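User: Here's a protein and a ligand (zinc ion). What would the complex look like?
Assistant: Let me lay out the input and then the predicted complex.
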Amino acid sequence: MDANVAVAAAGEAMCWICKENKADSGEHKTKRSDLLAVLGTPTQDAPFYFNDLNRRNQPVKSLDAKILKMPVRICASCNNARTQLHDRAWEHMSDRLRCRRLAVGRWVRCNRVFGSSVKRQMLDVHLYFLKLFGCMLAEAKANGYDLPIDLDAFSQAIMSGRPHAEVHLQFGRCDGTVGRSNLHYWKTDPGESVLAGWLYELDTIAVSVLYVQAGKFEHRRDLWHPHSRTSSKRFQIADFRYSKRDKSDVAGPNTVA
Ligand SMILES: [Zn+2]
């Protein structure tokens, strides 16, 4: 399927979160406040340069440029009112993490990030990354990829304000990259266990967002989940400084979006 045709068709579609309103609101791939914090404001004379799989060095002259937003959309009500607290929680956490020097392997207690309502706000961070992940899945599906991941579960989690049982986060150090990786997925056998993930990179910090199919993988304490018995109250700083690592560390995933 031609990617541009699929994206244009998806632009007319309904919002994947509420399924009630027309999708007419673009969500930023990287949060606007995060871009502003680490890059400042681009101008006509001093643009940023955006790279993706298709083209390199595309000039970006505004933080509201279309290229910074996801092509598959959600509705304004979901993007603003419904998920506003989720956005705010991540904005706060992003700010707190970028202010401190993160030591790889160390554990950070969530109440060091959020002084009060820590449980609620960490859940909101989880829900913020569900919104981005769901948009990427919707985009991949619109582009003809048959991913064995149910988008409805993402919608239900956001609509009900409850966690998605199979989506986990890792917070860690990054190597100066700013942006969003492609969505990768790994499948052991047809019909067998599915693992998918992508990386939200923000200069000195990064968040790995992982879909880990329930019951198919061993529990890992280093993955953070709002309902994890062992790791809901703290998270371990992961190492996402990939440019310093041997590339052979990364098993060849399938890139889908
Ligand atoms: Zn909606």
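Summary: The two ends are 13 Å apart (CA to CA).
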